[in-house]
Amino acid sequence: FCLKHRDIFKTQLRAILRASAHGNVQIMFPMISGIAELKEAKAVLEECRQELKAAGTPFREDLPVGSMIEIPSAALTADQLAAECSFFSIGTNDLIQYLIAIDRVNDRTAHLYEPTHPAVLRVLAEVVEKGHAAGIKVSVCGEMAGDPLYVPLLIGLGVDELSVSSRQIPLVKARVRELDLATAREQA
User: Fold this and answer.
1) What confidence tier does 82 reach under pLDDT thresholds 50, 70, 90?
2) What is the DSSP string of 13-58?
3) How far out from the chain centre does Cα 49 lie?
4) Spatial separation of the C-alpha atoms in residues 28 and 25, rounded to whole Å
5) Distance between CA 60 and CA 22 in Å, rounded?
6) pLDDT at residue 113, rounded to an integer
7) 3-state secondary structure of 163
8) Could you tell me if 69 and 87 are in contact, meaning their C-beta atoms sit under 8 angstroms apart?
9) What distance separates the 2 farthest-apart alpha carbons in the chain?
10) pLDDT, tens digit, for every residue of 120-144?
11) Structural contact between residues 165 and 171, judged by C-beta atoms closer than 8 angstroms
């Protein structure tokens, strides 16, 4: 949508850039399917930077730009995407749904939604590996990140950060505090 409706996209990007002059702001592009889309989105961002510079509008020049990894094609090209990103955020809800071809809100298929499916675990490990090989942090968001049952697994796979709803913070924080990293890595 954003790449087809650049006027809307540019309005959003310019607003984020302007806000970056006043606080801790990052840009994360969602639903990126591969390197071509990421480069196109970054080119639009660069146009916005140039427009703001020309207008004398302040913004953070070194604003971190990352990508959601929530589509299998993005996960499988994580090495290419990592070269163009400051960080990754793995969106587990969509990634799991697309990897194992189920609709988690459909009563007939929701029971097949399995965060620990071997394909899911392999993809998570690979994305973390590719991100770290490029020197970027990898976070996880979605239901999996906020579930204390999966926290040791995610930490053991090498995930750097967990993005959770505010009500899950105490539970996830407690689970992280009780973890032994070596054991979590071994179990993962």
Assistant:
1) very high
2) HHHHHHHHTTS---EEE-S--SHHHHHHHHHHHHHHHHHHHHHT--
3) 23
4) 10
5) 9
6) 85
7) strand
8) no
9) 55
10) 999 999 999 999 999 999 999 999 9
11) no
Closest CA to 41 of 84, 91, 77, 70: 84
Q: How do strand 87-91 and strand 65-69 relate by DSSP bridges?
A: parallel
131's enclosing H/E stretch is: helix 118-133
Q: How far apart are CA 155 and CA 185, in angstroms?
A: 7
Q: Which residue type occupies 15? A: A
Name which of 120, 113, 121, 119 is nearest 157 in CA terms. Answer: 121
Give the whole-angstrom CA distance, residue 129 versus residue 67.
15
Phi and psi dihedrals of 68, rounded to 5? -75, 140
- Yes or no: say if 64 and 26 are a contact pair by the CB < 8 Å rule: yes
Q: Exposure string (b/e) for 133-161, b if CB count within 10 Å is 16 or more? A: ebebbbbbbbbbbbbeebbbbbbbbbbbe
